[in-house]
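User: My instructor asked us to take a sequence, write out its structure as tokens, and then describe one feature of it. I'm not sure where to start. Here is the sequence I was given:
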Amino acid sequence: MAAVNIWKRLLALLLTLKSIPEYNCNLKMSFIKVDEESDFSFHNLPYGIFSTVDNPRHRIGVAIGDQVLDVSAIKHLFSGPVLSTHQDVFDQPTLNGFMGLGHEAWQEARRYLQKLLSANESTIRDDVILRSRAFVHQSNVMMHLPAEIGDYTDFYSSRDHATNVGIMFRGKENALMPNWLRLPVGYHGRASSVVVSGTPLRRPMGQMRPDPTKPPVFGPSKQMDIELEMAFFVGAGNRLGEPIPVQRAHEHIFGMVLMNDWSARDIQAWEYVPLGPFLGKNFGTTISPWVVPMEALMPFVVPNAVQDPEPLPYLRHQDDYTFGINLFVAVKGEAMREAATICKSNFKYMYWTMKQQLAHHTVNGCNVRPGDLLASGTISGPEPESFGSMLELSWRGSKSIDLGGGESRTFLKDGDEVTITGYCQGQGYRVGFGPCRGTILPALQQ
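Assistant: Let's start with the prediction itself. The structure tokens for your sequence are:
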């Protein structure tokens, strides 16, 4: 009798594993061919908003290999308990509606997408008409902001970055402010100037005080900088006055994008006391168009940073929620034939986790909504090559950053194109984000 019970349990376990796409060997390959170095493997399936020349309607797509799956064309195939009554979210021009359905809907959608795209599933593969209507080559699409961003918050959660900047401006003894190791420091940014990759940005005008013995001057920023960041989109929100507990914060985190939070350092240095960033930051923030779901990143989770002193109880969580995401920043000047990589970093260097950021953001009762964007702050590691800003790489302009071919920078010049890329490396596949790219245009003189 005992042996029979054991076999029954084993059979039940095997059936359970077989029903989960990630454990089904047949589902690990798609009928869509994907190169091993493609960011958009079958293990990824990120969401974005796209349009085409012959169909300018903004619609939800899923990237796989060099193709985009038009989800609105297959929405009728989602027949699970949540999405069968909410198929209309896939007809919307942003991801907000889908994000707002919550984590059970996201998991359900991912299971169906993996099943429909798998090599042994004929529903789309063998339907010539549906297949031709559902897939578009990535070279033929225009990408748009993935969501209507109601609010944008930027954190300051890399200890190496905060320490470097603190040393520059306050000295080694006062590098970290007293609150930094106690809570995720952040500020509210400007959602209206968040743009999708490929959108050029103008060098901002503003007040600066290059000579501390003289009055400030007005003009174009001379210290244009990049900030290597990542950001996550909030999915289901919370009611005003009801905090999101850290233990359940992951249920509200939809997915991640790359971010370049451009900075005018000279404008920022003059204006930030006492209330923090303003014109030096709000002129533009670039994000990558594809939102990588958190489920695709979970295989690449790494241990959280050791936090000393231990955070207050509302910020404590035992599960790991930091990720090994390889990050790169490249700069290409107008006279350069090829871009030069100036930074190699990793998201694993973050001190505060996204769960802690969201829990802290809402602990006072602040309500977040689907499509809100919360950013990491500049991601720097312990070595100079992993510094995530030109402020650090040039150490406040005191040394040049070699770009090769006789080109060097301390800060960005007009015409410079900056590209951020990032991916998690699996065995024979990647989970990546696509490029986050922007070019600096000359200032509009007044």
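For the description part of your assignment, you could build on this observation: Residues 100 and 316 are 26 Å apart (CA to CA). Try explaining in your own words what that tells you about the chain.
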